[in-house]
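Format notes (please read before filing issues)

Several people have asked whether sequences and structure tokens are stored in separate files. They are not. Every record keeps both together, in the order shown below: the sequence lines, then the token lines. Line labels are part of the format and must not be stripped during preprocessing.
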Amino acid sequence: MRLNQSLQQNQVISKNFILLGITNFAVMLGFQMTQPMMPQFAKSLGGNDMLIGLLMGFFTYSAILSRPLFGNLIETKGRKVIYLFGLIAFTVLMGSYTFLALSSEVIQSAAIALGLLFILRTAQGIGWGASTTASNTIASDMVPASRRGEGMGFFAVSTSLGLLVGPALAEFLNKQLSTEFSTIFLVCAICGLVATLLSLRIQYKHLSPEAAKTTNYRMVFEKAAWKPALLMPLVSFAFGTTLTFLPLYVLAAKIEGFAMYLLLYGFALLLARLFVGKIYDRKGISFLLIPSFITVVIALLLLSWLPNTTVLLTVAIIFGLSFGTIQLALQTWAISSTPVQRRGLAIATFASAYDLGIGTGAIISGIVAQNFGYSVMYLVCAFFVVCSFITFLFMKK
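Then the structure lines:
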């Protein structure tokens, strides 16, 4: 009897964990479908590179500002209420994008159309901050401490599958079937609705009175997670840049194969998520981060050069493996460094740092691209990753 209980307590995969993974996949599928479409949609409304960078930045900064609040509320009000709020917000706002796309021809002023898009995108960032902070906290509740890296890696597979399928599906609908933006956003809203309904069947961790007492509403960040939170923005700066501008870069360079890039990148990211957690538990963080930092820089230098489709697809594999490794390893480090009762705040702290890099990357890279071109933009990204690498080496000593 005790042996069976011990095995269950050390088990990573459970019915509840699988249900959470399916729910996360549904919302990630909808979200990732919008990622390659949003810059193109903004451009169709009259936006330039600088405005597109600001648009992506507004989304991430609203997530950053809301995450500390949600990190506290997760511990004081419970996981379920915050997760549901985020999923409902996602679904409603995706429906609003559909309405805006249908009304874009009626709205004759580009300034008004873009202004509405900025408002919706900013509001979506708040909902995104709630749902992603809650989902990662819920997942961390379900896995044993001795296998946390492995467990969070398995959960991240659902995110990677969304990234694998979402952008490719959006590109297929957009290019092959000539689907309108409104239809793509409607599909994303349906994904959000499915995720919301599935989330009602998840069994959540009961609210701990002790956790509520020890959680200070004035706490903004979890200090135990400061090291990974310091390193992450300099790397996600490059991810935010690639997320925002690579679709426009390959279009301007007249390079084919962007849909294949998305598929290969998603497969590489998925592969990293499957194995990184287990390696983290056995070998430690330095074993993973040192080679990954180096290969991310190589990928960014190749993007700065980008002569043809072969190099683009090579970058997809290198960047997917390397970035996936860094992101998951640093997140696991943040969770493992924090007391159980402040885990939600630790995840919020790390996610805010991650979003800070994405938002700042989109804004600064938009300015650089507008004035100096995409090639210089990726050299700037490589510089920031090198800075993160050097900082980690000093932390290691």
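For reference, the curators noted about this record: The chain has 14 helices and no strands. The mean pLDDT is 87.
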